[in-house]
Each structure stands twice: as C-alpha cells, then as structure tokens.
C-alpha cells in the first residue's frame, strides 16, 4: 500500500497491548484518516517473550479500538533479526514509521505467572477480557509452566557476581534437500522444533561441542576426521534478547552433505524427536521453531523469503 500525509504508521510488539499504547493508537485514529499498525515478530513460536501470534495480538488491538478499527490496516511483519537486507525490504515505505519499544515484558510475565489478576490495572479493559478468555486455554497452561521454569532458572543464577553470559552451539545440517531438526523435550520451548545444539562444556572447543550435541540428540555421528569437507562455515548469533533464559550467544556450524540417502537418526538426551525435514517445509514451520532458530535458518538461506509482510 502507498502511504501519504494523512496516514500514520506504527510498528510494535503489542504483547500485550498496554494502556499507553492503546491511548496512542486511539489518538492516531482520531487524528489521521488512515492508520497502519505493523505487528512485529509475526513468525515467532509462542514463548514467554512473545506468547501470542500476530493474529491474536491483532485481535487484542481490535478489541481495544472497537469501531475505530475501520480506519486501521494491520500488517504482520517478520523480524529477520540476522538478515537486515530482508528486514529493510519488508519495511520500505514512503512515510516514517513510529517504532514502539517493547515495554510490556513485566506485564506479560505477571500475566503468565498470576493470570488476569496480575495485570488487571495494566491493560485496557477490552484486552483484559481477551486475556481472561486466553487464561482458560491449554496454551496458557503451557506458557505458565514455561514462565515458572524461566523464573527458577534466572533465580538459580542470581547469586553470580555478574550477570551470566552463556555460550552455546547449534548445528545446521543439510543432507540433499533436507535439514536435521529435533523436537524439544524439555523447557523452555517444549514441543517446538529446534536445531541440534546446547551448552558448551568447559573442556571442549566450539566445534567439538556442536558435534557432541548432534550425537547426543540425534545419534548422527559426524566423524571429526571427515567433517571439514562438509563444513561450509559458522556464524555467531548474539541478539541480546534471543533467549528468555538470559544472555545466550550461540555459534552455529553449517554442514552440507549432498549425496546419498539421509542417514538414520534417533532422538535421545533432551530431544523428544529427531527428523530430517524437507527444506521446502521449513517455511510452514516458522511459527513452531524455538527461539531464533528460524532466523538462523534464514541467515543460511534455508527458508524462503516472501518479503516479510502480509497485509489485510
């Protein structure tokens, strides 16, 4: 769509919509002929950081704005946190966009811990009603358990003299037209698809850690003696907010095997399932991928790009 001087564009997480954000949107609807609301993180799997899909967050905003939604166009925008070229392509417009910071973290944490009672005075009444309905669903129970896990995890490190920084590894393994994924068996992200990986032990190199994690979670032994010819490269992924557990930096190693049938894999350790997923199916799994693993696959060019924006 083409924006002009009578259009106001705003981008944000809106997870959930706060009272201040609702007031800003109401003022925009009153002062402009057309309002564009871009909901970011449209491809995120449900987590304590983004508990709701872009469609659910749009529903909250519609509830808060009521009849004024007739002036609003909603757009669901992917993050592309490691592909600024795709992010800029998704956001190209002729009018500046006001980007709202994500200030709702304490509100969503309170909601996931305590339910609607924890946010009664922090969100618009219409949003509170929406959250009350959501609190009766299995999705809320799952996210509540994850919030409790995250709280306990952070509490266990509270005695550290400095905020901890965790070092992790992940393995992106292509075989023909497939990529190896695991389904997480534990918190956080239980039931979501992820790259094989985990924390680095204090007696191993990053590459050794990645190879060990692949064996432990999938049974696939990438023999160190031959792995160099299949290793295309590695990259550091360090978005400060990539994990709700705290500051985690992962080093992802990209392997490619181009010939033969995919080898047998079997889930073990903390993986509930190991599976060779056809690359063409990764796009449909974006909202089921753990933390930033979809963005990591984006970086290595394994998920198709459609420009990152869907409008109504």
Q: How would you explain this protein's 3D organization?
A:
This protein is α/β, with parallel strands linked by helices. It has 2 domains: 135 residues, Rossmann fold; 147 residues, Nucleoside Triphosphate Pyrophosphohydrolase (Alpha-Beta Complex). Helix 2 packs antiparallel against helix 5 and helix 4 packs across helix 6. It is globular. The termini are close together.
Query: Could you say what the CATH architecture of the largest domain is?
Result: Alpha-Beta Complex
**The CATH superfamily title of the largest domain:** Nucleoside Triphosphate Pyrophosphohydrolase
Cα separation of the termini: 10 Å
Basic shape? globular
Described by strand count, sense and barrel closure, the largest sheet is: 7 strands, mixed
The count of domains is 2
- Which spans of ≥5 residues are poorly predicted at pLDDT below 50? 307-312
Helical content band: 25-40%
Radius of gyration: 21 Å
The number of strands is 12
Number of continuous helical runs: 8
Name the beta content range. Answer: 15-25%
CATH fold title of the largest domain: Nucleoside Triphosphate Pyrophosphohydrolase
- SSE arrangement, N to C: EHEHEHEHHHEEEEHEEEHE
Mean pLDDT: 90
State the secondary-structure class.
alpha/beta
Instruction: Please give the CATH class of the largest domain.
Output: Alpha Beta
Tags for this model:
single chain; 312 residues; alpha/beta; Rossmann fold; Nucleoside Triphosphate Pyrophosphohydrolase; 2 domains; disordered C terminus
Give the helices and strands, then pairings.
Elements: E1 7-12, H1 19-31, E2 34-40, H2 54-65, E3 72-77, H3 84-90, E4 97-99, H4 105-114, H5 125-134, H6 138-156, E5 165-175, E6 178-184, E7 193-194, E8 197-199, H7 206-218, E9 231-237, E10 247-257, E11 271-278, H8 293-299, E12 309-311
Parallel strand pairs: 1-2, 1-4, 2-3, 5-10
Antiparallel strand pairs: 3-12, 5-6, 5-8, 6-7, 6-11, 9-10
């Amino acid at each position: 769509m083409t924006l002009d001087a009578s259009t106001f564009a705003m981008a944000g997480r809106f997870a959930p919509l706060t009272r201040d954000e609702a007031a800003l949107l109401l003022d925009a609807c009153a002062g402009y002929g057309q309002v564009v609301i871009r909901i970011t993180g449209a491809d995120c799997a449900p987590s304590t950081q983004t508990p709701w899909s872009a469609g659910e967050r749009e529903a909250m905003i519609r509830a808060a704005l009521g009849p004024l939604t007739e002036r609003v166009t909603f757009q669901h925008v992917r993050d592309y946190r490691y592909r600024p070229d795709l992010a800029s392509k998704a956001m190209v417009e002729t009018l500046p966009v006001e980007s709202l910071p994500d200030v709702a973290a304490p509100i969503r944490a309170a909601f996931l811990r305590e339910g609607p009672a924890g946010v009664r005075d922090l969100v618009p009444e219409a949003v509170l009603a929406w959250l009350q309905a959501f609190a009766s669903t299995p999705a809320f129970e799952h996210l509540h358990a994850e919030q409790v896990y995250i709280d306990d995890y952070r509490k266990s490190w509270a005695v550290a003299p400095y905020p901890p920084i965790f070092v992790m590894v992940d393995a992106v393994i292509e075989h023909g037209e497939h990529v190896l994924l695991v389904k997480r068996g534990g918190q956080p992200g239980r039931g979501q698809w992820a790259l094989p990986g985990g924390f680095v032990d204090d007696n191993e190199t990053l590459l050794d850690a990645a190879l060990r994690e692949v064996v432990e979670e999938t049974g696939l032994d990438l023999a160190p003696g031959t792995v160099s010819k299949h290793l295309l490269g590695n990259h550091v992924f360090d978005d400060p907010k990539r994990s709700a557990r705290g500051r985690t930096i992962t080093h992802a190693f990209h392997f490619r095997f181009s010939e033969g049938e995919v080898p047998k894999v079997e889930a073990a350790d903390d993986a509930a399932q190991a599976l060779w997923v056809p690359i063409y199916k990764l796009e449909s799994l974006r909202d089921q991928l753990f933390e930033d693993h979809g963005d990591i696959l984006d970086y290595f060019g394994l998920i198709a790009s459609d420009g990152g924006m869907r409008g109504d």
